[in-house]
Design goal:
This protein is an all-beta fold and 117 residues long. 0% of the residues lie in helices and 50% in strands. The strands form two sheets. Strands 2, 4, 5, 6, 9, 10 and 11 form a seven-stranded mixed β-sheet that branches. A hairpin with a 6-residue loop joins strand 4 and strand 5. The protein is globular.
């Protein structure tokens, strides 16, 4: 079992920025695909951003150009820089770690992001 602990959520006005972080307690962190997912009320959970062990990034269409995922394989952390936030970005954001051959892996507890005036 890999423990994932998210931090950095909160409230922000439209157009603002937040940075989420996820710390993983595992010495094989660098082997994991690290992802950020989000789930808004009444909606399905969706993948926001993903980073492979080699650093390849992918993003959901709704966040491209606004969000940036990064990872630190020394500190075993993955971050999500979120800029130009809008109310549609309001959701609980989850960190997810999986090995490449897995369909699903480990989840963090989630952190709330609220974008409103």
């Amino acid at each position: 079992q890999v423990q994932l602990v998210e931090s950095g959520g909160g409230w922000v006005q439209p157009g603002g920025s937040l940075r989420l972080s996820c710390a993983a307690a595992d010495n094989i962190f660098r082997q994991y695909i690290m992802e950020w997912h989000r789930q808004a009320p009444g909606k399905q959970r969706e993948v926001v951003a993903s980073m492979s062990p080699t650093g390849s990034e992918t993003y959901g269409d709704s966040v491209k150009g606004r969000f940036t995922i990064s990872r630190d394989n020394i500190r075993n952390t993955v971050s999500l820089q979120m800029n130009s936030l809008n109310p549609d970005d309001t959701a609980v954001y989850f960190c997810h770690a999986k090995l490449p051959m897995w369909a699903s892996g480990y989840w963090g507890q989630g952190t709330q992001v609220t974008v409103s005036t």
